[in-house]
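Job type: complex structure
Entries:
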Amino acid sequence: MTPVLAIAASELRIALRNRWVAISVAMMAIFALVLTAAGSGPSGTLGVDRLSVTVASLTSLAVYLVPLIALLMSFDAVAGEVERGTLALALTYPGARATILAGKFAAHLAILALAVAVGYGLAALTALAGDARAAAGLAALWRLYWSSLLLGATFLGVGYAVSAWARRPGAAAGMVIGVWLLAVVLYDLGLLAAVVADNGGAFTRHVFPWLLMGNPADAFRLFNLAASGATAAAAGVAGAAGFVPAWQALGLMLVWPLGAFALAILAFRKITP
Amino acid sequence: MQSLTLSRVTKSFGATAALRDVAFAVAPGERVALLGHNGAGKSTLMKIVLGLIAADAGEITVLGAAPGSAAARAGTAYLPENVAFHPALTGQEQIRHYLRLRGQDPAHALPLLARVGLAEAARRRIGTYSKGMRQRVGLAQALIGRPRLLVLDEPTSGLDPVSRREFWTILDGLAQDGAAILLSSHALTEVEARTDRIVILSQGAMVANDTLAALRRRAALPTQLQITARPGAADAVAEALAGRRFNGVRVDLVCTPEDKLARLGQIAALGAMVEDVDLIPPSLDDIYRHFSSEAAQ
């Protein structure tokens, strides 16, 4: 068994005992079910199958919930070890520092994959049960699934970087909530205000799409909207989806997790136990 | 080849000098005790040896490699001061984890825990362990994979007397197998009997590095003689030896190491007036105080 797997196995066990697995799965399941129930009314009149509508709702849900779960799981990763005094010993074992982060990452991503699978799976089952044509939306759901994991992976990396930088779990917890508010809520609000003020001018057409891609949460939204034209009408940033080709958004979705993890390793290397 | 060599190792934190020109070596099979007050630089020195922090100057080789290198880490075991583990894992899970990190069979976890007397508690979470039990988990992980250098920071703190004795027995076995051991301790009396050499740090500087016997000679601290006189003869004994009467029957004498035999001869010459003699050599605590205060002046 390689060191990464050994660390991942211990982290999974800790997450199970700390109820993090249960909390993540329950959060995703409850929100997915509530959304499906709320979104089931108007589907017949739009002429779109029920699962595709569900996917559009789930995209909006995932943008908020997946980063939140990822940050909550990751903020303690380095700061917690510093505070408990377990880091010095861990660093004297063979293996690079990146190995420790990679092990934690593998465990946290697996928990996220499970939680998102349960949430989306429940939503899909509900949609399939109520609409015979819903199978048409399965491709969009699958795309949403793996892109959600890429989004989660990005915020896991960001969480580790914040954790290493903050050094204390309390400070790290506050900072990840700040990161979440900024990246997922305030960033979009700011852009929305700018677009409204610009009223269709040069900013909206040339700068705005790039600013959207400068935020992993928006890149995720753009990718899922651009890839499925059917759901574009349902979302606020749909206008931008036309400016940014899906492959560019996908490229960004792949680059963001790598960049975030590299940032985490850089921050972790600076720690002296 | 030495297992660990340090030469001219210097480290400061800001304006504070943590270590100044420290140089010593530890050979395979040798047990070296690192003594010093809190803040003398013991933990800093250990962290430099482990590659956790970098020295500002000086050369260090650990098992022939640079500190913190893959080769050095593969052969070195560390027991930190107040060792801690994740409270949600059991002792067995934690040791299995460390075995895997060292590329060893995780099935060795139970025998290792049994060796440090934790077989019964192996399946309980570490969160429920006492400090002494955590310390024993720490010792168990330090035994993984027959390390060639052990760095132990206050290894016996929190252990009860029985556990301490078991701990030193395990350590003796490791040293016999050729492991080099560098440990720090506040329990000077137990270090006295169980280590081969003593390094004393004072305010970051090394003030002594020798065997206990040689340090005793160098310090030339007085030996104490406690003479028990026959009832009623205490005053006469004190007068004859120019000593100090301590109570009804006891007379105390203090003499230099060179005078010791001559003094004993005088005492023997008093014949029937003396019932018994106890000879108290300077303790490690005395020697430690001597070298620490000598450095401070």
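Summary: Residues 3-269 of chain A form one domain. Chain A has one domain: 3-269.
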